[in-house]
Amino acid sequence: MSTNNVKNVVVVGAGVVGLTTALKVLEKGGFNVTIVAETFPSDPKTIRYTSLWAGAHHVSHAEGDLKQQKIDEETFKVMWEMSAPGGEAEGCFLRLQQTDYFYDGRNPHLEWMPDYAELSPDSFIPDAKFGIKFTTLTIDTPAYCNYLLARFLARGGTVVRGAVQHLQQVAEGGPHAFTPGRTGTQRVDAIIACPGLGARTLGGVEDKDVFPVRGQVVLVRAPWIKFGRTASHLQDGRWTYVIPRRSGDVILGGTKVDNDWCPVARPETTTDILERCLALCPELVPPEVRAERTPTIDDLRPLIVEEGCGFRPARKGGVRIDVEWIKAGEKEIPVVMNYGHGGGGYQSSWGTAAIALELLEESLSKDTA
Ligand SMILES: Cc1cc2nc3c(=O)[nH]c(=O)nc-3n(C[C@H](O)[C@H](O)[C@H](O)COP(=O)(O)OP(=O)(O)OC[C@H]3O[C@@H](n4cnc5c(N)ncnc54)[C@H](O)[C@@H]3O)c2cc1C
Ligand SMILES: *[C@@H]1O[C@H](CO)[C@@H](O)[C@H](O)[C@H]1NC(C)=O
Q1: Using CA atoms, how far apart are residues 94 and 79, in angstroms rounded to an integer?
Q2: Which residue ranges make up each domain of the chain?
Q3: In a 3-state reduction of DSSP, which class is residue 121?
């Protein structure tokens, strides 16, 4: 035992949650970390992998829940540093001014964000009852997830492609059980399960409290947009946002429908998103067109790069971060659960990864005690 203190940890899942958690554990030191996943960020976009479909921006939904706020604040701090001018991940982020309007008049308690200010009612959009502005950042999700993967590999992490049927396959067979032609097993000391929506079906987890919240988006090319804007109503489902990326692409959304499994963009929803976004942000239409006439959504259609949808991995009761023990031959090993991030997997990624690391270290110290 004492000859090899390095612990073998297998992370299941390579979405933003699995990648961030794997990196957090690897960079702590003392762990040999392998990611096993069915889909990686360099694969083509698929509805089985939510992370590539997100906007994404950091606009916390904690609304005064102090535990969630701490998680989101910690993540913001890490991302703010990563997005620093000249830093290696700068290109994955756009720092910008965000404006949020609330049709229901609720206060999201984002006073902790930089440059926070309440808007005066005379600058509200029609029907809004409250408005704020602050500084935040947006995340270019394909670039960022691939950055996380590259950093993980560069620091000595290993990746294995595999569709896990039951966590016991990982516990007993080791990560290379999924590599064709490989023989022999490798000791696994702990598993971290970050399967997103896969938590519904993955053996050893099978959490029926996990459900999809479908979000449809339209990706447009509008490099002149350098600010973010959102308008929302909690109850009636209205939720419109404009999220520009550093690349000049802009994500327009959105929808939020529980248990809707439709895997492709619905044309009528795209039309609805374009209408809402044009009303919220007429600046989306090129300035020369606006100078000529009152713009319509037909002026937005030529800007479309892609339409699609993703399934936010939501969970009744919120994110699950705790530990279960699973049989691995003669002994039992800990499984740290980290899934169910719903619509906030980016903005809570580093905070939840830190909790998962704490639980991992705690369990492994019990294990050898
Ligand atoms: C339209 C839209 C907009 C969004 N906007 C934002 C935003 O602005 N800010 C924000 O913070 N969040 C946003 N989100 C939410 C965010 O995208 C999710 O919370 C996040 O991507 C969840 O990441 P994940 O790693 O848990 O899941 P996923 O990205 O789905 O990754 C799951 C991983 O687990 C693997 N896996 C699952 N089951 C198995 C198995 N049995 N065997 C092997 N591998 C398995 C998959 O292959 C994949 O690698 C948005 C989501 C959508 C859809
Ligand atoms: C680390 O994990 C990889 C992949 O599972 C494995 O091939 C390698 O032998 C491990 N290294 C050590 C030092 O245990």
Answers
A1: 11
A2: 3-368
A3: helix
> In whole angstroms, how far apart are CA 260 and each of 65, 112, 308, 311?
27, 34, 14, 8
Q: Confidence band (pLDDT; 50, 70, 90) for 368? A: low
User: How far is the C-alpha of 41 from the C-alpha of 240, rounded, in Å?
Assistant: 26
Torsion sign over Cα 52, 58, 64, 65? positive
Residue 215 has pLDDT above 80, yes or no: yes
Whether ligand 1 lies within 6 angstroms of the CB of 340 is answered as no
Ligand 2 centroid vs 361 CA: distance in angstroms?
Answer: 19
Best of 1, 9, 26, 34 for a ligand 2 pocket test (most atoms within 8 Å of beta carbon): 34
Closest listed ligand to the CA of 189:
2
Chain segment 227-270, per-residue pLDDT in tens: 999 999 988 878 999 999 999 999 999 999 999 999 999 999 99
Q: How far apart are CA 134 and CA 111, in angstroms?
A: 9
Phi/psi at 213 (nearest 5 deg)? Answer: -115, 105
Residue 215 CB less than 6 A away from ligand 1: yes
Residue 152 confidence (pLDDT) above 90: yes
Q: Is 312 in the pocket of ligand 1 (CB under 6 A)?
A: yes
Distance CA 92, CA 1 (A): 42
Find out whether 178 and 292 touch, Cβ atoms under 8 Å: no
Average pLDDT over residues 101-130: 96
The CATH class of 3-368 is alpha beta
C-alpha 32 – ligand 2 centre gap (Å): 6
- Ligand number nearest to the C-alpha of 26: 2
